[in-house]
Specification:
Blueprint: H1 8-13, H2 20-31, H3 39-46, H4 50-62, E1 66-68, E2 72-74, H5 76-100, H6 106-112, H7 118-127
Antiparallel strand pairs: 1-2
């Protein structure tokens, strides 16, 4: 009998130190790094309340992933993570667009990106015709 089976909840709770919402924030900050990001502008980009955004920014600052002086910027560590998260998003978006054509839904990318492992992502990337984007 295979003892490697776990529930989804177990897999989720055994993840690294950043949560899925933190990943979304870091990816968005990376995407918008050329802008002067504030809690107000970031909350609009993520379609969330400013109070929720403020709490998450405090957590990300505590983890040394962002700086929040006059504007929200990524630290070196945050930049590395943000770059990877954005890359992961791009790969999955291109893959699902090729796979599903006119039935493509961005929602699927947003859901899948938090669960895919790096080996699978690399293998998808190797099979893509349209990567890197032009």
């Amino acid at each position: 009998m295979n003892n490697d089976f776990y529930t989804l909840t177990t897999y989720i709770h055994n993840k690294n130190l950043i949560t899925y919402p933190m990943e979304d924030y870091l990816e968005m900050i990376y995407r918008k790094q050329d802008e002067s990001l504030t809690i107000t502008s970031l909350s609009k980009h993520l379609n969330i309340k400013k109070s929720s955004c403020s709490k998450m920014i405090s957590k990300l600052k505590y983890l040394n992933l962002i700086n929040n002086n006059n504007s929200i910027t990524l630290t070196k560590k945050g930049l590395e993570i943000g770059k990877y998260l954005y890359h992961r998003h791009e790969i999955l978006e291109i893959f699902l667009k090729e796979l599903n054509k006119e039935n493509f839904k961005l929602e699927q990318v947003e859901k899948l990106e938090h669960f895919i492992d790096e080996i699978t992502l690399v293998n998808i990337e190797k099979r893509l015709k349209n990567y890197p984007p032009k």
